[in-house]
TrEMBL record:
Belongs to the IL-6 superfamily. This is MGF factor. One of its GO terms (biological process) is immune response. GO terms for cellular component: extracellular region. Residues 1-22 form the signal peptide. SMART domains: IL6.
Length: 200
């Protein structure tokens, strides 16, 4: 269900080239290869979203943390980052900065998933699969941006950012809940940005 690296790289190359050179994407709307690559990338994003949803179900089933509105007050005590994706919204969509923000967000959440792994040691395989998919997506975007001569940030292979610290086990559990909730929203925005391109 994963996207071949070449397919994703070509898709992003087309999107970035069109965005940077001002060519209308409408020219590509009937291009079967473009649509195929776009659909594959949407499927790949759906797979990552599905894995996050599976982890959310585990948190709900094992920790009894299921509803965000019941945990809002606890959240105020936690230092949980929400990766920005404002450049991926329709009103302000810019392909280059959107893909840069997707990469930055994937890096943040890749590191944050260590918190989930500590919470759910019995589901390490799922967390590691998710991290691998995220790393592959990020590196494909980086490679394509480099090929186009765009500025990229090189992230270390091992995450260097400090993990959030929690004052209690309960705060750790709630922190894990919100990391997954934020990541799911992040993925939904990235997905909508790509789907928006299919409708141009």
């Amino acid at each position: 269900a994963t996207v071949p690296a070449g397919g994703l790289a070509l898709l992003l190359g087309v999107l970035l080239w069109r965005a940077l050179h001002g060519a209308p994407l409408t020219e590509l709307s009937g291009d079967q290869d473009f649509q195929l690559f776009l659909q594959r990338n949407l499927e790949f994003t759906r797979k990552i979203r599905g894995d996050v949803a599976a982890l959310q179900r585990v948190v709900c089933d094992t920790l009894q943390l299921c509803k965000e509105d019941e945990l809002v007050l606890v959240r105020q005590d936690l230092d949980i980052a929400q990766a920005p994706l404002e450049q991926c919204h329709k009103r302000t969509f810019q392909a280059e900065t959107c893909f840069s923000q997707i990469r930055a967000g994937l890096h943040i959440y890749h590191g944050s998933l260590a918190t989930i792994q500590a919470l759910l040691p019995g589901h390490t395989g799922l967390v590691e699969t998710l991290q691998l998919d995220m790393a592959n997506l990020s590196s494909n975007i980086q490679q394509q941006m480099e090929d186009l001569g765009l500025a990229t940030v090189t992230y270390p292979t091992e995450n260097q950012d400090p993990l959030p610290t929690f004052s209690s086990n309960f705060h750790h559990q709630v922190g894990g809940f919100f990391i997954l909730a934020n990541f799911q929203r992040f993925l939904e925005t990235a997905y909508r940005a790509l789907r928006h391109l299919t409708s141009l």
